[in-house]
Structure formats: structure tokens, C-alpha cells
Amino acid sequence: MLSSEGIKMNRAPQFSLPALEEQMQMVKQLHLETLLFCPDPWALRHQFINRETGEVVRVRCDRWRCQYCGPRKVDMWRQLIQAAEPVLFITLTRVGKTLQQASRVLTTVLQYLRRGSKGRGPDSIGARPAYAVECFAVLEEHSDFEHVGFHWHLLVKGVDYIPKSVLEAALRSATKGYSYIVDVRAVEKTHAVGYVTKYLTKEIDAERRGVREVQREVVLCDLDKAGNVVKRVEVQTVQVPCKARRIRYTRHFFPETTAALRARLFGQDEEASEVELEEHGSSGASSDDDVEAREEDSQVQGEQLGDRVSAECEVCRVKRSIWELHEREPFSDDIQVYWQRRQAAFIESLQRLRAGEAMYSRRVVSIWHYQRRRLRLVG
């Protein structure tokens, strides 16, 4: 059967494996296929080829909801956050019942902390210092959503200490007195990083996102008395889903670009198996109220693996990736073709596992189990 820690590379198993057909049947009965390959139709018919070595790897859809890609993305983010070395773990409760409300609260809290206050009058009444905080934040939906709503989990660096009273005042100001309950503690162990990143695969229901009103110009056609078509423009107010993000981090939270961090932590071999995170001049200046939203939802992995942007001596130079995206099979809307491609990917991945290749880690299995259980509860 499958090992939760994977089989070490070039290490023979200590037990005799069942026949391939028997092992395939066991994996299907336990619904473990999503540990071995990405079932996305687009990913199944594409591949990356290394221009230098000729190595071929399968493409991933890289969606958070995917049971294959989601846990691996969480594991990658966890290692990136650990490299940033946060020092404080902060929780802001009751920040709203839509993503837009929660995002506005987070931005206001950061403004409150970063700008400080000189106080009022000659005695500087109410003065408070400014805190140069940089943070990584994940929004969580409370189990009692009707009464509590969302709350933010923040991993903070840039300061060693923030008084709880200051955070309570910041949250009270951001929510207009609606909420003031906060929790702040030092990050002494890496469990705080794991606690925060666990929620990266936690889907938020569409109705929880909320809506916003926008005005759009609509062209309407009428007939005049002579029967001629007359066009007129009418401004209508419509409701559209909120685009606020549940995963956010400030510009200088990471010590370098996430692309450079990944290259240093994972090496060149990970370049084709992980999504390239888009950076926009991380060495540039950021305003006090600038909170960068970074969430990977791209379906086209090849577009993000094409070029890598690096800053050196304030000059951005583009380095072309050694991996090229190729379409291994043409598009087809036949469901039987999809299941044939899925079966081929399943057999290929299982053969790699039987050959001793490490397909997953214990951490990935743990996140995979949590995500699968949550998807089962959601239905």
C-alpha cells in the first residue's frame, strides 16, 4: 500500500509490493488517486519539457481546491513563511461577514499601527508610537459564522512587541466599536506557521464573499414612431461578487521575492512543479496603507513559468525558464477520452511510486487528509 511518508529515492522497499493491477484496485477503493496526480483535464494533456536535459514532467492545475495541488501549495507557502521568520502571531476576531468588510478592517488596522499618532494638544494626549509591521494574513470563517463571522490570523515581523491594548484600540477603530477582541503571542515554535497555513485550502462559500454595487453603461434599443431603431445609453447599478482576497501579505514581509526564495529553498527541480509567483518590484517603496493581495488561482501554469524577473542593481532583467510548455494531446470534449488520460496518468504515477520515487511527504498527506475531510463535509 501507499506509505504516508513516501518511499525514499533509490531505496528499495522493505516489503514485497502487490501486483500493479492489485495495487491500483486498492488505491481506487480507498480513493487515494489524488495523492498521485492532478486530475484536471487541462493538466492531463499538457507537459513541461526541460530544454537542457529533455526531462518531462506533468503539468498541475495549481488550484487551491484541487486535492493534489492544494496540499503541495500549502506546503510550499509554509516553507516560504518560515524563511521570512515571523515573530508575532496575532488574531483579530469578528472582522465582518463578507470578504470586502474583512479586507477593509485589515487595511485600517495596519494603517492604525503603521502611522501612529502625535496626540492632541500641547501635552500630546493620546499619542502612540508607530509600528513598522509587515504581515502575512489568512482569513478564517468561524464555526458560529452567524454571530462571529470572519477573523484574521496574522504572522507579523518588523516589530518584537505590540501591546495588546494598542491592537484592541486598532480593531475597535477599524470596526467602529463592533469588535475589540484580539490575541497576540510570540512565535516561539513553528506550530503557529502551520496553524495559519492550514487554512489556505479552506474554501469560503460563494455566498460568504458578499457583493458590491457597480455602475455600468448599458446600450438599449428603442423604436421611434417612424419605426426606426434609436439607441440610448442608460446607467444601471448592478451587483457583482466581491473580489477581495482571503490570503494577503504586505510588500516587505518576505526578505526577497518569492521566486528567489523558491529557487533557494527548492532548487531548479521545483521550477516546473510549482507555480511562479508574480512579483511587482518588491524592492520598491510601499505606502503605509499598501497591502498586497497575493493568491494563486491561475489555471494556466505555463504563462507563469515562462519568464523569471529578478532585480539587480535596480535593473530588472528577464531570465527565460529552461522549462517549456507543450501540449501532449489535443483538446477533446469526449468524457471517455478524459477517463483514458486520467487512467494513463494514474498508472504512470503509480509506477513512479513503485520505482522508489518520493511522491509526497507526511506533511502533504496531513494537509491532503484535512482538505479531503473538509470537502466531504461541504458536500
Report what the structure shows.
Among the domains are: 64-120 and 129-204 and 244-264 and 291-297, Alpha-Beta Plaits (2-Layer Sandwich), CATH 3.30.70; 207-241, no CATH class. Helices cover 33% and strands 22% of the residues. Helix 3 (69-84) packs across helix 9, helix 3 (69-84) crosses helix 12 (362-378) and helix 4 packs across helix 6 (164-174). The chain is built from 12 helices and 13 strands. The protein has 379 residues and is of the alpha+beta class. Mean pLDDT is 77; it is low at 1-10 and 268-318. The chain has helices spanning 20-29, 41-44, 69-84, 99-115, 145-148, 164-174, 191-197, 206-209, 258-266, 301-305, 335-354, 362-378, and strands at residues 46-50, 56-58, 88-92, 134-141, 150-157, 182-186, 211-223, 229-241, 247-249, 292-293, 307-312, 315-320, 323-327. Strand 11 and strand 12 form a beta hairpin.
Rg, alpha carbons: 25 Å
Output the strand order for the largest sheet. 6-3-5-4-9-10
At the first level of CATH, what is the class of the domain at 64-120 and 129-204 and 244-264 and 291-297? Alpha Beta
Q: Identify the CATH architecture of the domain at 64-120 and 129-204 and 244-264 and 291-297.
A: 2-Layer Sandwich
The biggest sheet, with number of strands, parallel, antiparallel or mixed sense and barrel status, is:
6 strands, antiparallel
Overall 3D geometry?
globular
What number is the mean pLDDT?
77
- Which series of helices and strands comes N to C? HHEEHEHEHEHEHHEEEHEHEEEHH
